[in-house]
Write a structure and sequence with these properties.
The chain is an alpha/beta fold. It has 2 domains: about 290 residues, TIM Barrel; about 130 residues, 2-Layer Sandwich (Nucleotidyltransferase, domain 5), CATH 3.30.420.130. The protein has 14 helices and 17 strands. The chain has a 7-stranded mixed sheet. A hairpin with a 4-residue loop joins β14 and β15. α2 crosses α11, α4 packs parallel to α6 and α7 packs parallel to α9. The protein is globular. It starts with a strand and ends in a 15-residue tail after the last helix. Bound molecules: FE(8)-S(7) cluster and iron/sulfur cluster.
């Protein structure tokens, strides 16, 4: 079908089949149907959905009512990718136009989130006006908001009126003494309040907002920034408390703190967690509730699949003269979504069958330490399949395989080492960095790979594998694990340098 954006000048602008199989493709199978329907195509609330569907943010909310020690919203660099950073602040009208342009161009975009660059609820008129217009003009788009929670209780009812079914609250602590080390001040009832008292009010409002949303049937995700030495141990308690109050998902994210960002933590030399520390804490919290491990810490104006940013395609000067036939766009979007769902069902079937076959092999083999976990890195541009050239990957999806389970444990960003231009002279350095980033992985699955990186990966104890190109990721990971099991490679312990230590 033809593209549904028309410019004014007339030109086009452009279950595993069986639940409990051990595959993670349908971890939502246990949820009530109404909740499955809410999260099925939300790339943040459903891990599987993030392979298939995109999200976008509109930066309509410049002000904030608190200060976090890890934030400096003045900093704006288009190469940056972290929350609170944005290039262009939009009015609600501009934001609505941008959302409709993106929806028509990227039909797999299912969710519009407002996440900054300040706090959306510290800018209630701009945020709610954007939601108001979109719920009327683009009813097929899910609306989502992310907040620090200070102003949340006051607007819960209005959010519900606009059909907002997904809210994220950033909760870094439930103890004001911990909070006082994270938040220097809040702005509350027209006054600046500092120290422990500020943290106490913020925590009270966050918890009240969470309870009010849950009582109204809104799905709540809690984001927590892991700050080593400040709230690392405390986050297990946060997870326990928010789960008890009905939060749907907990997303523990690593602190990003660099001196050049100009944040308090960055300047003071506060370090972020290692990959290992992050994973250990996520695993420790997972006993209490579902954990999100696929967060990419998006910019407040991000557009596209998680991990990619196509915002530069939709700057104001590019979209201002577009006329969008949204009825036609909605029809096209529905077709694309139906095709994605058919593809997801087929992938679940294939991965389920592969896992049943692995489980059956495991039962036939004598008991050995072969079910030790194996980390595999996967190069994928989306769609839930192994489909990317090793040298073109900007991130690798990390899966852990055992004879009982295949699970996604995170994404690791890398520098693009193969640019195909004169920077190729620097390729070796970037490749070495990539190999360091893949520490702990024993296999890297990709669509293709060159001779040079193949040799260097092998020398580092990481086996490149291009034999499962275009297969569903979990099916491919299961198949490689089975091959390792059959060849006896799992009989040995993983080499020391492969242990997770990045
Ligand atoms: Fe945006 Fe956040 Fe909604 Fe997603 S992001 S407002 S819930 S639509 Fe998602 Fe980005 Fe992580 Fe946020 S990957 S930073 S969790
Ligand atoms: Fe920055 Fe968000 Fe904290 Fe406000 S709530 S200071 S925008 S990180």
């Amino acid at each position: 079908m033809a593209l549904t954006i028309v410019s004014q000048s007339g030109g086009a602008a452009g279950g595993c089949a069986s639940s409990g199989c051990g595959s993670s493709t349908d971890r939502l199978a246990h949820l009530p149907e109404a909740i499955r329907a809410k999260v099925n195509n939300h790339p943040c609330f459903s891990e599987d959905a993030h392979h298939h569907y995109a999200r976008m943010h509109v930066a309509v909310a410049p002000a904030c009512n608190i200060q976090c020690h890890y934030c400096n919203r003045k900093y704006d660099c288009s190469n940056e990718s972290r929350p609170g950073v944005v290039s262009e602040v939009l009015t609600p009208d501009q934001a609505v136009k941008k959302v409709m342009a993106v929806a028509a161009t990227i039909p797999q975009m299912t969710v519009l989130g407002i996440a900054g660059p300040g706090d959306p609820l510290a800018n209630p008129e701009r945020t709610l006006e954007t939601f108001r217009q979109l719920s009327a003009k683009a009813p097929d788009i899910k609306l989502c908001v992310s907040t620090n929670g200070l102003a949340l209780p006051a607007v819960v009812d209005e959010l519900c009126q606009h059909n907002i079914e997904h809210v994220t609250i950033t909760i870094n602590c439930v103890d004001p003494d911990v909070g006082a080390k994270i938040y220097p001040w809040i702005f509350w009832n027209n006054r600046r309040i500092k120290g422990r008292k500020a943290a106490e009010i913020l925590i009270e409002q966050q918890q009240k907002g969470l309870e009010m949303l849950v009582a109204r049937g809104v799905l709540v995700k809690v984001n927590s920034v892991l700050i080593p030495g400040v709230n690392d141990e405390h986050l297990k308690e946060v997870s326990r408390v928010v789960k008890a109050k009905g939060a749907f998902l907990h997303n523990v994210m690593p602190l990003i703190a660099e001196a050049e960002h100009g944040t308090f933590y960055g300047i003071m030399g506060q370090r972020g967690p290692t990959t290992d520390e992050l994973q250990r804490l996520q695993d420790a919290c997972a006993g209490d509730m579902a954990m999100m491990r696929h967060c990419r810490q998006c910019r407040a104006d991000a557009v596209g699949m998680l991990g990619e940013d196509r915002g530069h395609e939709f700057t104001l000067d590019r979209i201002e003269h577009l006329e969008i036939d949204y009825a036609a766009a909605m029809a096209r979007r529905a077709e694309v979504h139906a095709a994605i769902e058919a593809n997801r069902a087929a992938q679940r079937r294939q991965s389920g069958e592969a896992f049943v076959s692995l489980a059956s092999l495991t039962r036939r083999l004598p008991a050995k330490p072969e079910s030790r976990p194996v980390l595999m890195a996967v190069a994928s541009t989306g769609g839930g399949v192994v489909n990317q050239h090793f040298g073109h990957a900007r991130e690798f999806l990390i899966y852990e395989a055992t004879a009982q389970d295949v699970r996604f444990i995170g994404a690791r960003k890398v520098d693009l080492y193969c640019t195909g231009d004169e920077t190729c002279g620097e390729a070796e350095t970037s490749l070495q960095k990539t190999i360091r980033t893949l520490a702990g992985c024993e296999v890297v699955l990709c669509a293709r790979i060159g001779y040079e990186p193949w040799g260097q990966l092998e020398a580092a104890g990481i086996l490149p594998n291009g034999e499962h190109a275009l297969e569903p990721i979990e099916e491919a990971v299961t198949a490689v694990y089975r091959e390792m099991q059959e060849s006896g490679r799992l009989d040995q312990s993983a080499p020391a340098q492969q242990r997770l230590s990045a």
